[in-house]
Write a structure and sequence with these properties.
The protein is built from ten helices and nine strands. It has about 300 residues and is of the alpha/beta class. A nine-stranded mixed β-sheet has the order 1-2-3-5-4-6-7-8-9, with helices on both faces. Strand 1 and strand 2 form a beta hairpin. The longest helix is centred in the C-terminal third of the chain and has 18 residues. The protein is globular. The two termini are about 35 Å apart.
């Protein structure tokens, strides 16, 4: 999982691209402006480019109302996906990623995992996360996200999705997560095995731990998994891919486990480590996972 030790690595990545922190911050803002289809407000449908409908929504959970972003094709019913963001939570980069998936024919819900404390968009992008003391701010918020809390939230999100006209309830639900959100996908499948049939973790942190809540001990039969590991995460803990493989085989589940050529955060548009080639390869594997696993 990304932590403060990654900061020097981020600076090195930026320097290699000939960018300063300020340059990168401006680029993140440009991505948001280019992709944004206008102000998205809670409960207000907005038509975006490509025949999509999107809005911010409020979802009742066991611990309050979660604000989330929902985007889907404007017509018909579609397979649903829950997207768990990284440590900087729900922001425009995640909406961009959700819109791209919706354009492929999915109804995508991007959660704000920090809703117990704050609303979404606390950070405009990863550059502002770093500049605004993000590590210190999110610590108390992230501390509340136990496996049980994520499972309870998943149950609420699934129930909400199944009540939406745009969702095809005859098809399984997919879930994908990045960094901090990686293990949340495993918890989601464990919480609602009747509905969550595909789980994809991209540069996820904390997938292998000693405690019984460790994701690798909670693989769910009947769910297909994609575990995409960052190159530098594998260098830090090379044994984890083997532990994950053995756990998946023991559980008798279908799991694609691979180390990618990108560093931690390589799939996320506003991350200094974003690697387009490897991100596109991961994108292709995600679509293949959903196509094969989310059937009626």
């Amino acid at each position: 999982m990304c932590d403060e030790t990654d900061l020097a690595g981020w600076d090195n990545k930026l320097a290699a691209k000939g960018l300063s922190r300020r340059d990168f911050g401006l680029m993140g803002g440009a991505v948001a402006l280019t992709a944004c289809s206008g102000t998205v407000t809670a409960g207000s449908d907005t038509e975006s480019a490509g025949g999509l409908t999107e809005k911010m929504v409020l979802i009742d959970t066991r611990e309050g109302e979660m604000d989330a972003f929902f985007v889907h094709p404007s017509d018909g019913k579609h397979r649903a996906v829950i997207l768990w963001p990284d440590i900087a939570s729900l922001r425009e980069a995640k909406r961009v990623m959700a819109r791209r998936l919706a354009a492929e024919g999915y109804a995508v819900l991007v959660a704000n995992p920090y809703y117990r404390d704050v609303q979404a968009d606390q950070f405009a992008d990863m550059a502002s996360f770093r500049a605004d003391g993000g590590w210190q701010k999110v610590g108390p918020w992230r501390g509340k996200l136990s496996s049980d809390a994520v499972k309870a939230d998943t149950d609420a999100l699934v129930k909400w999705l199944d009540g939406q006209e745009a969702v095809d309830t005859a098809k399984g639900i997919g879930t994908q997560g990045y960094c901090m959100g990686g293990p949340f996908t495993v918890y989601s499948a464990h919480a609602r095995p009747d509905r969550v049939k595909a789980a994809a973790s991209f540069h996820g942190g904390g997938l292998v731990r000693e405690d019984e809540a460790s994701p690798h001990k909670n693989f769910q039969p009947g769910t297909s998994y994609l575990i995409a590991i960052a190159k530098n995460d594998d260098e830090k803990a090379p044994e984890e891919k083997t532990v994950l493989r053995e756990a998946a085989d023991t559980a008798g589940i279908k799991a694609e486990i691979e180390v990618y050529g990108g560093d931690h955060g390589w799939c996320v548009l506003d991350n200094p480590t974003y690697d387009q080639a490897e991100a596109e390869r991961a994108w292709g594997r995600l679509l293949a996972l959903y196509e094969s696993a989310l059937k009626g």
